[in-house]
Amino acid sequence: MIRVLMVMMLCGLSPCALGQAAVQAVVVEPTAAGGESYSLTLQALALMTVLTLLPAFLLMMTSFTRIVIVLAILLPIFELNTLVGG
User: Fold this and answer.
1) pTM tops 0.85, yes or no
2) Nearest to residue 26, comparing CAs of 43, 8, 51, 1?
3) Given Cys at both, which of 19, 42, 54, 69 links 38, Cβ 3.0 to 4.6 Å?
4) Exposed/middle/buried for 75, CB within 10 Å: 0-12, 13-18, 19+?
5) Per-position DSSP letters for 36-79, written without gaps between them
6) DSSP letters along 8-28, please?
7) In degrees, to the nearest 5, what angle opens at C-alpha 51 toward C-alphas 47 and 55?
8) How far is CA 53 from the centre of its chain?
9) 31 or 82, which is more confident
10) If you ran DSSP here, which 8-state letter would residue 84 be given?
């Protein structure tokens, strides 16, 4: 019995998990209003994805805004506004 418990612990299995039902990580259930309800795991995954990608989007927007401002300042200096149809 002790050997079985040692093997289970080495494999990352909990002895308490043998009698428990598996937790479903991905659950999408329809609601009464016609929408869908997502499990907490999916909500956490979506939140972490947004929080991970948000700084990259902010940096991209910041650099794009700087480039547009610099070009708007430089356009009259080089008198290129006659070439651009704006």
Assistant:
1) no
2) 43
3) 42
4) middle
5) EEE-HHHHHHHHHHHHHHHHHHHHHHHHHHHHHHHHHHHHHHTT
6) HHHTT--GGGGSSPPPPS--E
7) 160
8) 6
9) 31
10) S
Instruction: Calculate the CA 10 to chain-centre distance.
Output: 32
Alpha-carbon torsion, ordered 78, 81, 82, 86, to 10 deg? 170
Higher pLDDT, 26 or 41: 41
Q: Tens digit of pLDDT for each residue in 29-41?
A: 888 888 888 888 8
Question: Which amino acid, residue 82?
Answer: T
Which tokens in the block code for residue 27? 């659950």
- Our CA dihedral for 7, 9, 12, 14, rounded to 10 degrees, sits at 120
Rg (the chain; Cα; Å): 28
pLDDT, mean of residues 22-35: 79
Whether 64 has a pLDDT exceeding 70, the answer reads yes
CA–CA dist 86, 75 (Å, integer): 11
